[in-house]
Write a structure and sequence with these properties.
Elements (H helix, E strand, L loop, with lengths): L6 H8 L2 H12 L14 E4 L4 E4 L5 E2 L14 H13 L6 H8 L3 H14 L11 E9 L16 E8 L4 E5 L5 H11 L6 E5 L15 E4 L7 E2 L2 E2 L1 H18 L7 H13 L6 H11 L5 H5 L2 H4 L1
Parallel strand pairs: 4-7, 7-8
Antiparallel strand pairs: 1-2, 2-3, 4-5, 5-6, 9-10
Helix pairs in contact: 1-3, 3-5, 3-9, 4-5
The chain binds zinc ion (ZN).
C-alpha cells in the first residue's frame, strides 16, 4: 500500500483475514519469509494452517508469533479496523465506541485499544531542538477548578514540550518539582536548542543547567501571552486537544494508564502529516511484544 488510506480502501484492501495476514507477511518479511528461530529461508507453509515450518530446524511459526497479535482470538481485520480508527480520530476513540463499531465486548475493546496504544511509541531518546515551548497542565483528580488552594492535589502534572514546526512530547510527572522538571527537559530537549519558551512559573529555572541563557518567558499573570516571537501558545493548543480527548473520548483516565494515552496522543500528533501513518502503526504492532491482559490490569503496586 503506497498511499494514505481511507475507510473504503481499508475495507477493500483488508476486508478479509487472508488479506490482513498477507499484508503482515509483506511488512514483516519484505525479503521473503524467514524462520523466526534460525533465520533460515528454507521455510514451507503448513497446509490448512496459517503457519510455516522451517526445513533447517523444524520450528513452526506464524506471522503473528512474538508480536502484539500473538495468541489473539480477535480476527485480524478487526485489529486493522481498530488501528485505523485510532490513527484517524484526532482526539482518540473510547473503548465504548470501538466496542460498538466492531461488535465486540467492552473488555475486548478496552484490551485491544490498550495494545494498539502500547505500540504507538516514538523511538526512544528523540530530542527536540530549534524553538521549543514548554508548559505544564494538570489532568484528572476530583477538585475541578481553583478555589480551595491545593486544587492540583489529586491531579497528575503533564509536561508538554513542543518544537515549533516539529514534534510534541507529553510526559506525566507525579510530584513535580524543579529538579524533576530539569531531568525531564534534559531527556527531551537537545542542548543545541535555540530557545526555550515558558511562562514565569518558578518551576522553570535554567540557571546552572546546559540551557542557561536560552530561556525566554511570557508573563501570564500580567496577561502577557505573546511577546514578539515568545509564546507558549502552540504547546497550549496541544494541551487543549489532549483535554478534549480525555473529556470526549477517554472519559476517566487513571493515573496508571495516563502515560499510554499521552503516548497515543503524541504519536498521532507527530504523524499528522504522515501519509503512511496506518502502515507505520501496523509496523509498530508487528515490532511490539505481546502485552498480556493481566499486565495491564495489575495495580501499580503489583507492577512495581
Ligand atoms: Zn529454523
Amino acid at each position: 500500500m503506497k498511499q494514505a488510506i481511507d475507510l473504503c480502501r481499508l475495507i477493500e484492501d483488508f476486508g478479509s483475514e487472508e488479506k490482513c495476514r498477507t499484508y503482515l507477511e509483506q511488512l514483516r518479511w519484505p525479503d521473503g519469509t524467514r524462520c523466526l528461530k534460525c533465520q533460515s529461508e528454507k521455510v514451507y507453509p503448513i497446509l490448512g494452517r496459517n503457519q510455516y515450518v522451517c526445513d533447517s530446524c523444524s520450528y513452526q511459526f506464524s506471522v503473528t508469533a512474538n508480536t502484539i497479535f500473538h495468541d489473539t482470538h480477535l480476527p485480524l481485520w478487526k485489529w486493522f479496523l481498530a488501528t485505523y480508527l485510532l490513527c484517524e480520530s484526532r482526539k482518540g476513540m473510547s473503548a465504548n465506541q470501538i466496542k460498538r463499531t466492531l461488535g465486540i465486548s467492552y473488555k475486548t475493546a478496552w484490551y485491544l485499544c490498550h495494545r494498539i496504544r502500547a505500540a504507538m511509541v516514538e523511538a526512544d531518546g528523540h530530542k527536540l531542538s530549534g524553538k521549543v515551548e514548554i508548559d505544564e497542565t494538570y489532568i484528572g483528580g476530583k477538585n475541578r477548578g481553583a478555589g480551595k488552594g491545593h486544587w492540583a492535589e489529586n491531579k497528575t502534572p503533564v509536561i508538554g514540550i513542543r518544537e515549533r514546526g516539529g514534534h510534541l512530547h507529553f510526559i506525566a510527572a507525579n510530584n513535580l518539582n524543579q529538579t524533576k522538571l530539569q531531568d525531564i527537559i534534559a531527556r527531551n530537549v537537545d542542548k543545541s536548542v535555540d530557545v526555550i519558551m515558558t511562562d514565569e512559573s518558578a518551576l522553570y529555572n535554567f540557571n546552572m543547567t546546559q540551557y542557561q541563557g536560552k530561556h525566554e518567558t511570557v508573563n501570564h499573570k500580567a496577561k502577557e501571552y505573546v511577546r514578539g516571537d515568545v509564546t507558549t501558545n502552540t504547546v497550549e493548543s496541544a494541551f487543549s486537544l489532549l483535554k478534549r480527548g480525555i473529556v470526549g473520548a477517554w472519559h476517566k483516565v487513571s493515573v496508571k494508564h495516563l502515560p499510554a494515552y499521552l503516548q497515543e496522543m503524541t504519536w498521532r500528533f507527530n504523524n499528522r502529516k504522515n501519509p503512511f501513518l496506518f502502515r507505520d502503526t501496523i509496523l509498530k504492532l508487528i515490532a511490539s511484544p505481546n502485552l498480556e491482559y493481566k499486565q495491564l490490569t495489575a495495580t501499580v503496586q503489583d507492577a512495581a
